[in-house]
């Protein structure tokens, strides 16, 4: 399920941020990957609304 993927990516991002810092490239990359997952959920919800 995508919720599991989102939670896993969020946890990964937090671990990376704790290790390398909030502005590190690895952290930003994880954040962008999380954004993609969240955008997919939002798009799906908008398509199936109403």
- Following the backbone from N to C, one meets helices and strands in this order, namely HH
Low-confidence stretches: none
What number is the mean pLDDT? 96
User: What about the largest sheet?
Assistant: none
How many angstroms separate the termini?
23 Å
- Give the total of domains: 1
Radius of gyration: 13 Å
> What is the tally of helical segments?
2
Query: What best-fitting shape do the alpha-carbon axes yield?
Result: elongated
What class would the helix/strand composition place it in?
A: mainly alpha
Helix content: over 70%
Approximate strand percentage? under 5%
Count every beta strand, where a strand is a DSSP E run of 2 or more residues. Answer: 0
Please give a quick description of this structure:
With 50 residues, the protein is mainly alpha-helical. It has one domain (2-47). The protein has two helices and no strands.
């Amino acid at each position: 399920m995508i919720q599991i993927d989102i939670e896993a990516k969020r946890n990964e991002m937090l671990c990376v941020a704790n290790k390398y810092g909030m502005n590190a490239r690895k952290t930003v990359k994880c954040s962008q990957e999380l954004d993609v997952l969240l955008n997919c959920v939002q798009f799906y919800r908008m398509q199936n609304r109403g």
